[in-house]
Amino acid sequence: MSEPVVSASQHEAPAGAPHPAEAILQVQEGIVIDANPAWIELFGAGAELLGQPVMDLFDEPSRPALKGALAACLQGRWSGHSLNVGVLRADGTVKGIEIRLALCDSLQHGQPFIQLTMPVRAHDEGKRSEELEQAVRHDQTTGLLHRRELIEELRGRLGVPVQGGLRCLALVKLDRFAAIERAVGATASEEVLAGFARLLREALHPKEIAGRFGGVRFLVLLQRGNERDLQVWARQLVAETARRALDIDGKTLTATCTVGLALVPAGSKNIDAEIAAATEVCAKGTQRGGNQVLTSWGSDGGVAQQDEIWIKRIKSALLENRFRLVKQPVASLRGGDPRMFDVLLRMVDSQGKEVLPGEFLPAAERNDLLKNIDRWVVSTSLSLAAQHRPACLFVRLSKDTVQDPSFLPWLDGHIRSTRADPQRVCFQVTESTGASCPQVRSMAERLRQWGFRFALEGFGSGAGSHMLLESVPLDFVKIDGSLVQVLSRDKERQQHVRTLTEVATERGIRTIAERVEDANTMAVLWQLGVEYIQGYFVNAPEDVVLTTDSGTAQLRSVGDTRPR
Fold it and tell me: What order of strands is seen across the sheet that includes strand 257-264?
């Protein structure tokens, strides 16, 4: 479980003396004021470092995160997290490193400075051994895992239960590579593979893995919040591949790729079937001309058969009160504990096994069961608000509930029975629901009249986001996780999120970024003006315990970041 993301602690010097081999850079007001010999030796710069803007020492993709982290550190709100950045060497190459930031007092100048430290391993022999092992395990051209090592890593990952969301295998194939090879030659075509591998690595979360599966095929293990997130990832990879122009030996060319997606069932220990499914749908995409995304899931007979099973399980869980809630903290980037929580759902099957919502909610949605589940969630959340008195609980409503005319009368009666303070509950719907359901505006108005708050999640994913801010009365917007997940190295997304944040702030609407999973993303969000963040980088979901006299059984924690 991560430590709290932000801190309002006072300015402190780094604890303990630095290791002699640590590379250290000191920065004051954005200017380098000192660099120790280890930094100079590693990056090939001398006295000319002093007086340079610190941003000039790092590659362009690293700068937004570094700028945000420096600003947060200067205000005493950086809690010792590490950043992954690229340092520009004197010869023009880039070295990827991990750095720590700390705010220090300056005895010489009387003003604080920020110290950037690159930790190094104490035992060079161990480091060389690790580097050798990495070289053996990774493909020389792409830097990705070899096929054998990839499969071993996949088997290891499957032995660890997924904490939240969905696991998915993506089979990615470069289209018409033979034509590229004919155009530039076999040797130069390796540069195309290397460039595509860099693009693929940039699109992954730290917990995700990729390998060269053979020839121009790559296999990726993804972990995302829901099916839409998986498809968004794949479409963005396909679009970015087609967009990037390649300059190979004086020839400018473009490449495209095709992606096949196959879900990995929870508890699966043999992924041969999922690899075969991803391979099959990728092959279909290639046959259709490539440059597209196909999935192994859809509305075929197999899905209908599975739905019959899930319908029975869901109805049984509702009758026997075998649903569970967890609450995931929302952290403030401006300091302090906002005491806000996102309410997440879990089901327990008849054998006591915990079932993630990604497994049962799609079937519930297809078979008109979401309204029943929503009422259980709302009822239990109101009891939670009454007993624990948080500042705000975010509770999701499905499209089916928004369109259900009996929901508001039911809620009106239920408020009285729980004695919950409406101000402590914020109902939220997806942006797509807000755009497609005219009932959203009147529902939001009525809920806010009763004292509840209202929010849009998945904000910024559609074309009409700004119009919704004008038409729906809102207290919060949650910036879509698919925008946030690779934000730190994507300038276009950064500008998009900045614009969304500015427009929302102008209207007095507070912003929350969904699915924040690393310090670099948090630092960029700080710089872009986002006020709150949620995700596994903030904290894992926490226990929810209600007293049994409320008519609800004791609820316990389940790891889950998949919104529902």
Answer: 209-214, 217-224, 166-174, 257-264, 293-295
Confidence at residue 547, expressed as pLDDT on a 0 to 100 scale: 57
b/e burial code for range 116-149 (CB count within 10 A of at least 16 → b) = bbbeeeeeeeeeeeeeeeeeebbbeebebbbeeb
- The domain of 233 spans 135-295
Q: What is the pTM of this model?
A: 0.79
Q: Does residue 481 lie within any of the structural domains?
A: yes
The residue with tokens 């102008």 is 506
484-512 core/surface letters (b: 16 or more CB in 10 A; e: else): bbbbbbbeebbebbbebbebbeeeebbbb
Q: Is the pLDDT of residue 550 over 80?
A: no
508, 421, 424: which is closest to 470 by C-alpha? 508
Can you give the CATH number for the domain in which 69 is found? 3.30.450.20
Give the end of a domain, one of 65, 90, 118: 118
Residue 107 backbone phi and psi in degrees, to 5: -75, -30
Residue 462 lies inside a defined structural domain of this protein: yes
Percent of the chain with pLDDT over 90: 48
| pLDDT for position 47 | 63
DSSP tag of 356: -
Where residue 211 sits, what CATH number does that domain have?
Answer: 3.30.70.270
Q: Beginning with the edge strand found earlier in the chain, give each strand of the sheet holding 23-28 in spatial order.
A: 31-35, 23-28, 113-118, 94-104, 82-88
Length of the chain: 564
Please report the sign of the dihedral spanned by the C-alpha atoms of residue 281, residue 286, residue 288, residue 289: positive
Check if the beta carbon of residue 402 is closer than 8 Å to that of residue 433.
Answer: yes
Tell me how far apart the alpha carbons of residues 542 and 560 are, in angstroms, rounded to a whole number. Answer: 10
pLDDT at 302: 56
| Euclidean distance between CA atoms 557 and 356, whole angstroms | 12
The answer to whether residues 166 and 263 belong to one domain is yes
Within this chain, do residues 336 and 460 fall inside the same structural domain, yes or no? Answer: yes
Say if 124 falls within a structural domain: no
| Distance of alpha carbon 8 from alpha carbon 127, whole angstroms | 36
* Cα–Cα distance, 280 to 295 (Å, whole number): 10
82-121, pLDDT tens digit by residue?
Answer: 999 989 887 778 888 899 999 988 655 568 899 999 986 5
Residue 387 main-chain phi, psi, to 5 deg:
-85, -40
In tens, the pLDDT along 350-380 reads 888 888 887 888 889 989 999 999 999 999 9
User: What per-residue confidence (pLDDT) applies to 108?
Assistant: 58
Q: Are 102 and 115 in contact (CB under 8 A)?
A: yes
Q: Do 105 and 36 fall within a single domain?
A: yes
Q: What's the CA dihedral at 411, 414, 419, 423 to 10 degrees?
A: -10
Average pLDDT value for residue range 266-294: 89
My answer on whether 146 and 100 are in the same domain is no
Q: Please state, rounded to an integer, the average pLDDT across all residues of the chain.
A: 84
524 vs 516: CA distance, rounded Å? 11
How many domains does the chain contain in total?
A: 3
Q: Which of 84, 118, 152 is the last residue of a domain?
A: 118
pLDDT at 13: 39
CA distances from 474 to 127, 280, 468 (A): 53, 44, 9
